[in-house]
Amino acid sequence: MHAVISHASAFRFLDLSARLVPPPEYRFAVRPFDGGEELAFACSRSELAAMPLDRFSSEDKPLDILVPDRTMRRKVKGVRFHAASGKLPPESLMDAGHGVLVASAPLLFVQLCQGKSVNQCIRIGCNICGCYSLDPSSPDGVVKRNQLTSKEDLTEYLKLAHHLRGSRNAAAALPWVLENARSPKEVELGLAFSLPKRLGGFGFAQPRLNGSEVIVGPARTISDDYTNEIDVYWPDQRFGFEYASYSNHGDIRKIGRDQRRALALREMGVHIVQVTDEQLKDPHQMLALAHILEEYGVPRVS
Question: How far is residue 173's CA from residue 155's CA, in Å, rounded to a whole number?
Answer without folding.
Answer: 11
